[in-house]
Write a structure and sequence with these properties.
CATH architecture: 3-Layer(aba) Sandwich
Number of domains: 1
CATH topology: Rossmann fold
Strand order of the largest sheet: 1-2-4-3-5-6-9-10
Number of helices: 8
Structural class: alpha/beta
Strand content: 15-25%
CATH class: Alpha Beta
Radius of gyration: 18 Å
Helix content: 25-40%
Largest sheet: 8 strands, mixed
Distance between the termini: 30 Å
Order of helices and strands: EEEHEHEHEHEEHEHEHH
Shape: globular
Number of strands: 10
């Protein structure tokens, strides 16, 4: 299997990495993938390689200061990534490579960035066949008083020290307080708004391609079940599907936030469902 890094100019001084994963079986069916916070391409590599083995060409975007993308000293957050990184990646795929259509797979904040990107760039919506969101929610983490006060305390402590350490979630990249502040505010206010106050939720139904949202029963704090379900429901698309993975539901484990996309069990019982979802909409359910 071939892993090729393509360096794309973010600005005059910084490049971001877009990874092409392919092999001899890869054809003109393309999938765009994005990681979420504290993470990089590696969390997406398992599902990407599974798709490549089944004939797809995959493209994994790494955000600035993540993976092998250039380190960035200025301030940036979810919305910055959505408006800039995603625009650079999509422009390359559709304008430079002339790819006609893609499917999208995201983990966690990657799904939020895709949503904000498409609302700001609706001309790309028609180029997407389907999407799969692993553990994506914007406003539903503060479930109950305990979670609410944990998030409020986390916001305050990250303000004091200036960042959120990746060690708290067992991931490789710290995130700045400025980056995470907007997520804290979404959670505490229960409103999915941009830095300028723009309300994203009422615009979500304009994204009309089918979305498969996947959530694990062990994901209690970052992307709880109801938060993921509410995020999916906001698109108001009857073609969308919610997949909740738990031992009680017949799965091998109560998947947590990372294992839902990156584990041997996920490879065995969840990746095939994603493949079926993508192939189904490409062939027409």
């Amino acid at each position: 299997m071939n892993h090729q890094r393509v360096d794309l100019a973010l600005d005059e001084n910084h490049n971001i990495a877009l990874w092409k994963v392919s092999d001899k079986k890869s054809d003109e069916r393309h999938v765009f993938l994005s990681h979420g916070t504290f993470s990089n391409r590696k969390v997406c590599m398992g599902i990407a390689e599974h798709l490549v083995k089944n004939g797809f060409t995959c493209w994994i975007l790494e955000w600035r200061s993540h993976g092998e993308s250039d380190s960035y000293k200025g301030k940036f957050n979810f919305e910055t990534v959505a408006k800039e990184e995603f625009l650079v990646g999509f422009n390359y795929l559709f304008n430079d490579l002339k790819i006609k259509s893609i499917d999208v797979v995201t983990h966690s904040g990657g799904g939020l960035c895709l949503t904000m990107f498409l609302i700001n760039n609706p001309n790309y919506i028609s180029k997407i066949n389907s999407a799969t969101f692993f553990a994506a929610q914007a406003t539903g983490a503060a479930v109950g008083a305990k979670n609410y006060w944990q998030i409020a305390l986390g916001r305050y402590v990250s303000w004091l020290v200036g960042y959120v350490p990746a060690s708290l979630v067992g991931s490789p990249h710290n995130e700045s307080h400025y980056f995470m502040r907007i997520w804290y505010d979404w959670s505490l206010s229960r409103e999915f708004r941009g830095e300028d106050g723009f309300h994203y939720t009422p615009k979500m139904p304009m994204i009309d391609f089918p979305i498969l949202a996947i959530n694990g029963a062990g994901d209690k704090n970052i992307a709880p079940r109801q938060g993921c379900k509410d995020f999916l429901d906001a698109f108001e698309n009857p073609k969308n599907k919610f997949l909740f993975c738990s031992i009680a539901g017949g799965y091998k484990e109560d998947y947590n936030h990372s294992r839902i996309i990156h584990s041997r069990n996920a490879q065995a019982e969840i990746y095939p469902k994603v493949l079926d979802w993508i192939n189904g909409w490409r062939g027409g359910f």
